[in-house]
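User: C-alpha cells for this one?
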Amino acid sequence: MRFGRVVAIGAVAVLLCLASSALVADQILHVFDGTTDAVRLGAWGSGEIKLDKGQTFADHQTLAVVTGGYHEGGRLDLKQPVDFTPFITDPIQTQLIIVVKAQKPEQPYGGYGLPGGGPMMPGMPPGPGPAGPGAPMPPMPPGGGMPLGVGAEMLPGWPRPGTTAVSQPVEPIDRIRVVLVTDKGQLSSGDLLLNPNLAFEDDWLRISAVLSDFACPEDLQGATLQRVVITGNREGTVYVGEVKIVQEDTPLVAEIQGPDVCSVSHEQSVQFTAKPQHEGVKASYQWDFDDLDGLGIDAYGEVVNHQFPEPGYYVVTLRVTDPNGQLQPRMDTVRVKVE
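Assistant:
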C-alpha cells in the first residue's frame, strides 16, 4: 500500500526518544545526531555502516554507509524499540527527515585506465601494464614479428596503436532509500533523489519523505519500530548527519495544485497556485522555477505567475516555511515541459 507522494526538504536535531511539544510537534522520534547511544549499527546485506569522524555535520561525527545498491547498506537497530502507532495514525502529518550527502567517486586514471608511467614503446599502453613494473614483454609469436599484445593482436581490453581509450566515468550515488522495519512489516520510502543543486551546506542535503508516501503493509496498528535501514542506488558511500521522525499536530501544507507534469509554451505566462494552509496556520511561500541553478527564490506568494525564457525541461519548486520558525518546512515540485 502507498499512501501518497514524496517531497524533499529540511532536517534538524536528533536523539532516540519520544517527545512532545505543545507548539511544534506532538511526537518527535530522534534516531541519530552524532552518537550511537540509543542504536546499534549493523550491516544490511553485504554493506557496511560506521561512525565517521572525518565527515562532520553540525559539529558532530556522522555515519558512513557503504552501499552497493538497494540491497546493501547499513542499519540502525533501536536498543529500545518504540511504539510506532502514533506516527501511523496520522501519516500525512509525519515526516522522516534525513540529512545526507554522497561521497564523490574517484574517477579512473585517464588514458587507458592503467596506473602510472608514460609509454613503454610506440603502440603500447602507457604505464607498466597489468603485470606491474619489471613485467616481461608479451611472448613472441611463432616465426617472429611483433610480440602478442602489440600491433594488430592487442591484449584484451587494450586499444589498437594510434587510438586512445577513454575511461568510463564512475556514476555517483544519486538516490537513497530508507526502510523503517517494524514487527508488523516494513515501510519503504522508495527512491529519494539527491539533487546536488539543492545542497545547503558543504554538499549536505536535507531530504524529507512524508510517511503517507511510504509503501507499507495494510495493517500497522500496534506496530513497534525496531530498525532503520539506509541504502543507495549504486556502489559508494553515503554520509548521514541526522535522522529523525517528526509528527506535527498541524503541519505546513506544501502542494502545488494541478498535475505533477505539464506542458506550456515559452511565449505564455504560467500561473502556479499553492494549496491553502490549515485554518489558523500562517506560512511563507517561496518559488524556484529552475532547480539547475540551485534552490533560490524567484517569487513569493500563494499564487505566482512566471514566463519561462526558452524551451526545455524545468523543475518548479515550492517551499513553504513558518514565519515563526516553529513548524518543519515542506516542499513540493512539478515538472514543466516548455515548448
